[in-house]
Amino acid sequence: MTNKPLIVLGVVIALAMAGGHAKAAECPATDLASILSPTFSCTIGDRTFEDFMLDHVPMGATVSFAEVDDNEVTVTLSRGAAGTLPNGLAFDYTLAITSGTNMFTEGTLGNDVTQRQVTTTTAMTGPNGSLLGMATSVNGAHEVVFEGVRVPFVEVTNISTVSAGSTGVRPGRLNGLSNDFFEGHPAGAPEPMSLSLFGLGLAGLALARRRRT
Fold this sequence. Notes:
Blueprint: H1 4-19, E1 30-31, H2 32-35, E2 41-44, E3 47-55, E4 62-69, E5 72-78, E6 89-97, E7 103-113, E8 118-125, E9 131-138, E10 143-151, E11 153-162, E12 174-184, H3 192-212
Antiparallel strand pairs: 1-4, 2-3, 3-6, 4-5, 5-12, 6-11, 7-10, 7-12, 8-9, 8-11
Helix pairs in contact: 1-3
C-alpha cells in the first residue's frame, strides 16, 4: 500500500491551516512629518494606506491605524498635543486591498467632538474616480458614507468646519475624526477555509478509494 494519499491529505491539511487570515501587526500611530512623506505607506494585512494630504492640520496631531477585526480597519486623525483641530481642516488619503479576494463593502465617518458646532463632510471615490458616497457629520454624529458596493480601492476626502462661536456660545472643539472600512468576499467567491475543507473532502475520497483497491 502506497502512502501517496496520506501525503496528499497532509498537504491539504497544511493548506487548510494556512488558509485562515493571520492578523498583521497594526501600523503605529504616526507623526505628521512621516505621514506627509511622498514615500510613506502603511500596511495592515493586505490593506495599504498611502497618498496622504493634510491641510490646516497642526503638527502636534497624529494619525493612527487599527485592525478592529479580520474584516474592519480604521484610520484616525487625532489632535494629539495640538490642543484642538482647527477650522478648515482637510484630511485625504487612499486605501487599497493589494491581494486576496476581499473587497471593501462599507465606509463610515465618525467625529470626536467636545463642544458642538463641528461639521465634517466626507467623500469616498472608487476605481476610475466613481463616487461611492458622500456624508456629513454634524456635532459628532456617526455616518455611513457608502455601503453595499464592492471595490478594491477607496480614495477618501475629509473636510471639517469648526464654528468660532458667538456671544454666549462656546466655540466648536474637534478632537479627532475617523474612517472605518468593512470588507467582504465578492459574491460567489468561497472563503479560504471553505476551499480548504473542500480539498480535505477530496483527499478523503482519494484515500478511501485507494484502500478499497
